[in-house]
Amino acid sequence: FLEDTACLAKEIAEGNSFGYASYRYGIVYPYILALLFRIFGVNLSSITILNSILFLVNIVLIFLFSYLYLENEFASILSSIVYAVNPLVLKYVLNLRNEFVACSTFLLFF
What's the whole-model pTM score? Predict the structure, then answer.
């Protein structure tokens, strides 16, 4: 799956496949990845950077939403820590998978 997403992002970065991104790869993820490929070049560190940024954004959003809902700072910090050390989340972030990280970011925004 990573190879498909990276190939699609590379095609978008080169201008060959601008409107092709299907729902299988996510709606926005290939375009953001293509932008990073254009800036940093086509390499795995671009994917790592994007997934790490999305992971950190998720941690902050979990803290903010739980604080708004619970109005308890300790519970908000605890929920952020639980997410940050969750083995399933770390597996997807460290294995350069976009499905879980991108989906959880989307779910937190909407």
Answer: 0.69
